[in-house]
Amino acid sequence: MRTIYKGFKELEYQGLKIDKMVSSASWEILGIALEAGKVFPEHISPRDAHLIMLEGSIDFSIEGNTFRIQEQEYFNFPKKTKHIVRALKNSKFIIVR
């Protein structure tokens, strides 16, 4: 079966919105929309994760470092490591973990 998922592009910028696009026992894909000026509070990922920035700009803080991630960029980070995300602009990104 083939699926075209369209819900993520309609996800509104209202604070922090998380959309579980696909999930299985071993991996998942999350769509995240973060309104400009808002923060995704400190949290950890249960698995190594891959972030794909679709639109906007975020500051990703992890292990004492902050990385500015822009549209069309990729960033990866290890499991069980505390991190915080701040949106500099209305931003949408995908997490594959």
Summarize the structure.
The protein has 97 residues and is mostly beta strands.
Describe what this molecule looks like in 3D.
- This protein is mostly beta strands and 97 residues long.
- The chain is globular, with a radius of gyration of 13 Å.
Structural class: mainly beta
Largest sheet: 5 strands, antiparallel
Q: How many DSSP H or I helices?
A: 0
Question: Uncertain regions: pLDDT < 50 for 5+ in a row?
Answer: none
Number of strands: 9
The side-by-side strand order for the widest beta sheet comes to 1-2-9-4-7
Mean of all residue-level pLDDT scores: 95
Considering DSSP H and I runs of 4 or more, what fraction of the residues is helical?
under 10%
Query: Which descriptor suits the 3D outline?
Result: globular
Q: Can you write the helix and strand succession as a string?
A: EEEEEEEEE
Cα radius of gyration in angstroms? 13 Å
Give the terminus-to-terminus CA distance.
22 Å
Task: Please give a handful of descriptors for the protein shown.
97 residues; globular; 0% helix; mainly beta; four-stranded antiparallel β-sheet; five-stranded antiparallel β-sheet
What is the secondary structure topology, with strand pairs?
Elements: E1 16-23, E2 28-34, E3 39-43, E4 49-55, E5 57-62, E6 65-70, E7 74-77, E8 83-87, E9 91-96
Antiparallel strand pairs: 1-2, 2-9, 3-8, 4-7, 4-9, 5-6, 5-8
